[in-house]
Design brief:
Radius of gyration: 22 Å
Distance between the termini: 52 Å
Shape: globular
Number of strands: 12
Helix content: 40-55%
C-alpha cells in the first residue's frame, strides 16, 4: 500500500550536485564548501526524505525547461544540497567572497549576507570577487543528527501545475496522481473555494473514488481530494504541496515582458536595490511595509529581519502582525535588551548562543526551545527548564518576547522574490504597473 522508493534517487541527486559544484568552482571546491556538502550527502543517504529530494530535483528541472520559478518554503532551503539542485539565489553557506578565476575563497565574519558586502578584488589575481552566502547553519536544515523532520512545500505560478503533474506521472507511472484541493476564502468574500494546491500520489491500485470522505471539487469542477495532513498520511498518500503565489505570477509575466529570465537575475544585480525599491514592488504585506517605512532597513539582512518580525508571534498581543496590531513592534526593537541581543529569527538566537561559547548541541536545544515559545508556556516543566538554562537575564527577556519565530531561510527566500520583482519594476515600470496594479 505504501508509495515505492524511487530508484537511483541518491545517485541522480549526487550526479546533479557534483555537476553544479564543478560549474560554480571550476578550479577546485573550497575545503569548507566540500565539508558541508559531504556532511549533507552523509545525511541524505539514510534520510527518510531521499525521495522528496529526488522529486524536487525533477520538478526543478521541469521548471527550468518551461521557464518557470519553483520556490521552496520553510527551513529545508537551508540545505546546501537543495541549493545545488535548484535555481535559488539562497546559498546557505557562511558569508564569503570567491574568485572565479583563481579559486580564492574567504569567509567574512559578519552577520550580513553576501549580497550586502561591498565590491572587492581578489588579493591574489585582482579579479572582481563574487560575494555570496546567507549564513544558514547546517543544523537548521538537518538538525543535530540529520534526522530532523523536513518539509517539501512549494510556491509556484498556476501555469506550472500541468508540468508538475507530468513530472509526477513519469516518476510514478503505476500510480494515480490526483489533484489536491485546499479550502480558500478570498479577501472581502464570504465564499469558500477549493483551490488547486498540488497533487497527491495515491497507493498503487487506488483511485480518487476510493476516498469518498476526502473527495471534493476544484473551482473548475474537476474532481479532487482534500484533507488534513493526518488524513493523507494515514491513507499512505504522498502529498506534493504546490501553492499558487501572486508574486511568482507577476514575476513570470514580467519575464515575458522584459525578456529577462527570472532564474538568471543575479545577487550582483539585486545588490543595489534599497528598502524603498523593495517596498515599491507591491509585494510587501501591510505589516512589512509599515516596518520598512518606520525603520528604513539599510541592508538585505535587515530587510530579512523585518520580514520575520512581521510574521513572528509575540507574547504581547498588541504586537501581533496577524491582527493588525504591528504598530507596537518598533518599541520592542528599541529596548536596551533587544539592542544587546537583536534576535528576529530562530537562527539569530542560535548564533547568539554560539557566540556566548555554549556548545553546539546545547545551543541548538535552547534555540529550538525558544523558537517554539516554550519559555512562555504555562507548564511548570517548561518554566523550570528555561530557568535551568544558564543565560544572561537580558537574553532571556528577549526570548520571552516570542511565542513563535520564523526561520531566516524562509524569510530570505521571500525577500529575494520581492527583490526580483523590484528589479523588474525598475527595468520596465510601465509594464510592471500594468501587471502588478492592473492599470
Amino acid at each position: 500500500m505504501h508509495i515505492p522508493h524511487l530508484e537511483q534517487a541518491y545517485e541522480n541527486i549526487k550526479k546533479t550536485c557534483d555537476s553544479k559544484l564543478k560549474q560554480i568552482y571550476p578550479i577546485q571546491i573550497p575545503e569548507l564548501v566540500n565539508a558541508r556538502y559531504q556532511k549533507e550527502l552523509e545525511y541524505l543517504k539514510t534520510s527518510d526524505y531521499l525521495d522528496d529530494f529526488e522529486i524536487y530535483r525533477c520538478l526543478n528541472m521541469e521548471a527550468t525547461k518551461c521557464l518557470q520559478v519553483l520556490l521552496m518554503r520553510g527551513t529545508t532551503t537551508s540545505s546546501y544540497i537543495i541549493y545545488l539542485l535548484g535555481n535559488s539565489l539562497l546559498n546557505p553557506l557562511p558569508t564569503h567572497y570567491y574568485c572565479p578565476k583563481c579559486g580564492h575563497y574567504e569567509t567574512v565574519d559578519t552577520k550580513l549576507f553576501g549580497i550586502d558586502l561591498p565590491a572587492d578584488k581578489c588579493p591574489t589575481c585582482q579579479t572582481n570577487l563574487i560575494a555570496d552566502g546567507f549564513n544558514l547553519p547546517l543544523e537548521v536544515a538537518w538538525g543535530l543528527d540529520g534526522k530532523k523532520t523536513l518539509s517539501f512545500d512549494y510556491n509556484i505560478s498556476e501555469e506550472f501545475l500541468p508540468f508538475a503533474k507530468r513530472v509526477l506521472q513519469n516518476l510514478y507511472p503505476r500510480h494515480v496522481i490526483a489533484p489536491l484541493g485546499l479550502c480558500n476564502r478570498p479577501r472581502a468574500s464570504q465564499a469558500i473555494e477549493m483551490k488547486h494546491s498540488g497533487f497527491l500520489i495515491l497507493p498503487e491500485g487506488r483511485n480518487i473514488e476510493d476516498y469518498p470522505e476526502m473527495t471534493g471539487f476544484l473551482e473548475d469542477g474537476e474532481l479532487c481530494l482534500s484533507g488534513n495532513i493526518l488524513d493523507i498520511e494515514n491513507n499512505y498518500i504522498h502529498r506534493i504541496l504546490l501553492l499558487q503565489n501572486r508574486c511568482l505570477e507577476q514575476m513570470i509575466a514580467m519575464q515575458r515582458k522584459t525578456g529577462i529570465y527570472a532564474n538568471e537575475i543575479t545577487l550582483h544585480e539585486l545588490h543595489t536595490l534599497n528598502w524603498n525599491d523593495i517596498n515599491n514592488s507591491s509585494a510587501l504585506t501591510d505589516a512589512e511595509s509599515y516596518l520598512f517605512h518606520t525603520i528604513k532597513p539599510k541592508t538585505f539582512y535587515d530587510m530579512v529581519c523585518l520580514n520575520s518580525a512581521s510574521h513572528n508571534t509575540y507574547s504581547n498581543k498588541e504586537c501581533s502582525p496577524h491582527e493588525g496590531n504591528y504598530y507596537s513592534l518598533p518599541t520592542i526593537f528599541e529596548k536596551s535588551n533587544f539592542k544587546k541581543y537583536p534576535c528576529y529569527t530562530r537562527e539569530d538566537f542560535f548564533d547568539e548562543l554560539l557566540k556566548m561559547g555554549i556548545d553546539l548541541e546545547k545551543a541548538y536545544e535552547i534555540a529550538e526551545f525558544i523558537r517554539k515559545g516554550k519559555q512562555n508556556s504555562a507548564k511548570q516543566k517548561f518554566a523550570d527548564q528555561f530557568a535551568s538554562f544558564e543565560l544572561p537575564e537580558e537574553f532571556k527577556s528577549v526570548a520571552k518576547e516570542y511565542l513563535y519565530l520564523f526561520p531566516r531561510s524562509h524569510c530570505a527566500e521571500y525577500m529575494l522574490m520581492y527583490a526580483k520583482l523590484a528589479f523588474y519594476a525598475k527595468k520596465d515600470s510601465r509594464a510592471f504597473s500594468k501587471i502588478a496594479f492592473k492599470r
